[in-house]
Structures are given as structure tokens and as C-alpha cells.
Design goal:
This protein is α/β, with parallel strands linked by helices. The protein has helices at about 45-55, 65-80, 100-105, 120-125, 130-140, 165-180, and strands at about 15-25, 25-35, 35-40, 60-65, 115, 150-155. Strands 3-2-1-4 form a four-stranded mixed sheet, with helices on both faces. Helix 3 (about 100-105) packs across helix 5 (about 130-140) and helix 4 (about 120-125) crosses helix 5.
Amino acid sequence: MNMNMITASKTDLVTLYWDRLDGDGWSLYAAATAQGLGYVGSHDGSFDELEAWAAQRYPNHQWVQDEVTMLPYITEIAEYLQGTREAFTIPMDDRGTPFQREVWQALCSIPYGQTTTYSEIAHQIGRPAAVRAVGAAIGANPVLIMVPCHRVIGKSGALTGYRGGLEMKERLLALEARQSIPARGPRHAN
């Protein structure tokens, strides 16, 4: 594990609240701490995927399935997946290295319905030579959808890797393309 990663203390017990969103053709796990949403899983992902994330970032954790605590998070994710929400207002607990967090913040600036490239993100954060590191940070994003790494495509315009799988990435981009205002259109950087 990267020693610069922001993780919970090995001695502090952290309660992780979780629930599963099932509906409208989507099925995914989400988890939060008392500070905010920390994880959104891939479509049809397993609880093991969620547990692996928790073990890395919260070495001493306990699970609580709590529909009430998770309701604001599940509601906003469901609204996004239904095409009625373009931006999130829920808090996020984004644990990662400072570099990862910088990349994730840049991802959050990509407008709904638009795309960008890995190299454009590297330029945006002032590290144009760090394209591969940017790709790795994007791949480590634990909060799919809310941190919109699905909006990052290859320089050629091709769909590239996505933790949730390319089918999920295609579905999310298609959803945004249907809902976005046509005048904005997709943005592609060279």
C-alpha cells in the first residue's frame, strides 16, 4: 500500500454504512462513512469488491447495512442513473493519495455530457508528463459515477479502461449524451 495514502488508523474502528441500489437496469453497492460517500461499485459487482476497497482504506472496520443513512446517497445516484440529476450535492469521503485526490478533483470539473482525455487531465493538474500516473489515479477512483472517471477517454476518442467495465462506461456516456443539452456537445482534447 502507498504510504502516502490517506487511510484510517489501524486501531480506530470505522463504521462503514452500505446498501445496494437495484432498479432501472442497475445494480450496484455503495458505502459511506460518517464523513460521506466513499465507494460506488461497478454494475453487478460483488460484495467482495466492496470488501476489498474497505480492507485497503479502513483496516479496522465494521459493516452496517443501513438504508436510512444511505438514503441520500442512493437517492442521488438513482436520480443520476434515471437521467434527472447532473450534479451531486452529497458529501464525499475521498481517501487516497494527495495525487489521486488532485486527479479526482479534476475529474469532477468535467461537465456532464462531455468527455476529456487522460493527457488533458494531466495538463489540467500541471503535470503534462504524468499521463500514466493520471491513468492509474483514475483507475483507483473508488466513487464511480460521482467522481466521473467514465468521462475520460483515449486521445483517439476510443473508450479505454474503466473499473466498472467498458459496458458500464458506455451506458453512462450514453445516458449523459441523451440527457445533455445538444449545444454543449462532447469535448475532445487532442
